Amino acid sequence: MARCIEVGQVGSIADANDKNLADIPVGKPCVITKVNGDRTVRKRLMDMGLTRNTMVTITKVAPLGDPLELVVRGYHLSIRKYEAQTIMVQEVD
């Protein structure tokens, strides 16, 4: 498992490669680089564990595309698509 871990500096994540979480395909792991949006929404998302440098994977998407089910820190979390659009991530290979 240690062979799958890649270590980099905290400031080394480039903004040019960032996508919003809603655009990531199901099953593709990614790392949160930034949480944007309204202050109250941002605080609520961070309280649920969606913080910078956290690994996230989308496991399910509802038939109409809203909500999304994520695996974050070992637990399942469902968020709305508009909330996922405020979370910037970078895909992990």
Outline the structure in words.
14% of the residues lie in helices and 33% in strands. The protein has 2 helices and 6 strands, in the order ββαβββαβ. The chain has helices at 39-47, 81-84, and strands at 19-20, 29-35, 55-61, 68-72, 75-79, 87-91. The chain has a 6-stranded antiparallel sheet with strand order 1-6-2-3-4-5. A hairpin with a 2-residue loop joins β4 and β5 (75-79). It is globular. It holds the Pfam family FeoA. This is Ferrous iron transporter FeoA-like domain-containing protein. Keywords: Iron.
**Fraction of residues in helices?**
10-25%
User: What is the total tally of β strands?
Assistant: 6
Average pLDDT level: 86
CATH class: Mainly Beta
CATH topology description: SH3 type barrels
Rg over CA atoms, rounded to whole Å, is 13 Å
Query: Biggest sheet, strands in spatial order?
Result: 1-6-2-3-4-5
GO molecular function, one term: transition metal ion binding
InterPro entries: Fe-transptr_FeoA-like (IPR007167), FeoA (IPR052713), FeoA_core_dom (IPR038157), Transcriptional_repressor_C (IPR008988)
Protein name: Ferrous iron transporter FeoA-like domain-containing protein
Keywords: Iron
How do the helices and strands line up, and which of them pair or pack?
Blueprint: E1 19-20, E2 29-35, H1 39-47, E3 55-61, E4 68-72, E5 75-79, H2 81-84, E6 87-91
Antiparallel strand pairs: 1-6, 2-3, 2-6, 3-4, 4-5
Domain Ferrous iron transporter FeoA-like: 19-91
Keywords: Iron
Pfam families: FeoA (PF04023)
